User: Fold these one by one.
Assistant:
Number 1:
Amino acid sequence: MRIWKWDFRKQAAALVCVALLDGAILGAAMGVMQPGQKVSAGSSGEIEQLPHSAWMKDVQADASAGGGKESAPKPVKAIALTFDDGPHKTYTPMLLDGLKERGVKATFFLMGESISGNEELVSRMQEEGHLIGNHSYRHIQLTKAGEDAVCRAVEQTEGIIEDITGDRPQYLRPPYGDWNENLECRMNLTTVFWTVDSLDWKLKNTDRIVKRVEKQVKEGDIILMHDIFPTSVEAALQLIDRLQAEGYRFVTVDELVID
Ligand code: NI
């Protein structure tokens, strides 16, 4: 449940430090990294200059297809809501109901040990068009557990999800955002971090979560939340209503992958 505290406003400063330490982790700042993809060593300046428009595909097409009611269509800005640590027997269904009402697709990074008894929720996510990713088996710090333990935990969760949906997840969010280059080499999974940390697990206050995200969010962002708290679910649904009114469109993270 506890996640790496990543304050967006400190991101630029953190990036400089991270770049010096580990080129692979540099990808965290960009939100998504392809398996085997090498982030060019470069400076943090290069990363910050990446246009968000380069992260998206088909956004323009979707924008024109959805129009037709108002005179001047608003520009569409794609962002992704991501939910870690579920599924949760009570709160995940509430979230799925709210997403369905609003026609929004999200990304769920499921924890293997939370799936048992909640298999129908995993099926429902798939049926309703959400993207299902892997959040390992339980909340351990992967780089401390060792490569073998990490691979087993990720593989076990891959198998559990595949048994339910028939598909192996292709996206992994490591607990705590903790990862390293050696692990990357051993998994055929795309590692997905985040660019906006809602701190929902810590705030547990709907208004404060909404305000925090609204203040930071911009086109192309990947927002980190957890569908295991009622305040998080309520905040996510309020954010959808408010951000949709501002011209944002919610997509799954595979639509934000860097080319
Ligand atoms: Ni987590």
Number 2:
Amino acid sequence: MEKKWWQEAVGYEIYCKSFCDSDGDGIGDLRGVTSKLPILKELGVTCIWFAPLYASPQADNGYDVADYEAIHPDYGTMEDFKELLDLAHSMGMRVIMDMVLNHSSDEHRWFQESRKSKDNPYRDYYIWRPAKADGSEPNNWGSYFGEGNGSAWQWDEVAGEYYLHQYGIKMPDLNWECKALREEIYGMLNRWLDFGIDGFRLDVITRLKKMPGLPDSLKKPIPPMDRNGFVVDRNMCTNVEGIHPILRELNERVFCREGCFTMGEGAGVTPFNAAEYILPERRELDSIYHFQLASRKGPRLTAEQFRTVQKNWAKVGESGGTYIQYLSNHDSQRQVSQHGSDLQWRTRSARLLGTLIHTTPGIPFIYQGEEIGMVNVRFDSIEDYNCCYTVGPYHAMLESGMDPATALAEVARTSRDNARTPYQWNAEKNAGFTTGKPWLKVNPRYEQINLEADLAAEDSVFRYYQSLTALRREHPAIVEGSLTFLSEDDPDVICYTRSCEKETLLVVANLSEREREWEIPHPIRGRCRCLLCNMEKKIGLTGEKLSLAPWECAVFAVE
Ligand code: NOJ
């Protein structure tokens, strides 16, 4: 089958609000991004994913869209976006837009119309239900953001009914059963492709279809997040039967267009149901990213977990499906803090984690700042946090009787703001992100951790990532090779080969703070030439054992 451009891509997610501010208002913008395209090119990026850039009241930093066809004024204008797009294309980089199709903002014109009356032509664009006889919510579903009384239903005075919102109160769910809504969305998506973008990252795409009849969840509420008897039950709206016809129609009407790449956010997608979404013959999505490695609240990644997840997904790959490799994005913690060692072995573990992502099958996505080893932040006051997943749970914990210091510690570790603090360009004021007051405080460690310092350092994470992206360009086994794990019982050392007709590569990584010896399997003894190492280069694997320092990793060509 002919290769698609995205199969060899190196992705990079930009959270515009925190990337680079060109006009001093404290908020990152498109001109700021345009000024930094050369550095992304140098890194080896070939596909940029923009978190939502659309006009929005910013209740969830843009995932609450008020107009899908306008750029948010803080970020610039449509002309600024066009300039950025053209420049990116001329430099050989594609651009995909985040598309939020599960919900809009309550300030969207559709919603404003919809609430007006039952016979308004937009009424069915959203999910309205009358109150129960006692005035209570239509069912017991809870919302992910846990605002208000915890329900996923909000009473609307104007409409005289409740509307469904899986996320924030200001983010009403769109009704995909409504044909007029679907037509409206297809038109909008096609206009974006006509504009010249290269595809879409599809926000919570597995949640468009709701359980028919909207029945009560039978799960027991688990406080403090489930409050007042409401239950956050993913099964009510995730991967519900009937999601696939929706995706097939989207594909038929939009995604099938030449060159268009789609990457779905795969909440609830596992290797066991992924094929239905991404096998090419299904004509639904080109790729999916899953949560089995990068879960915001999860513990540190272990060698065993890594092997299991990669092995299961590799089977999906062998049957023709494409998936994304990543360890962090705008919803997660900083990967070096969650899975590596953000003090003693910061750069070394940052380089190791990058190696795992860039040498396993799939499309690697880098999240801004990862390439310089940016770390989690800890603010002293809840006032300094912005993320709704942080502030909401904090208040729920206080309500349940927890003391403020414990509640703050609890939410700070997993806060999405860890990933959202401004990009650290240099050691100047505000890390060179803005000349104004940043919308979210800069991580105080910016004086040591910033791009300028990183580029000048011997153990530069950025330079190492450049080598990783070069490896992908130069070695076909990285893109198309099969994956085989060796030493499968080792608690710390991950070891695998990638093999295609032309070559075999070997990756060895010590995922621990201990020095480790790794026994070199007989068939490859004396045959390995080091291509890349996150410490000093290992010359060749001649003896019986390879000794690995804490967090050391290396990539070899097996000759
Ligand atoms: C997933 C997005 O990545 C996240 O940032 C957002 O809050 C939710 N979807 C709701 O749109």
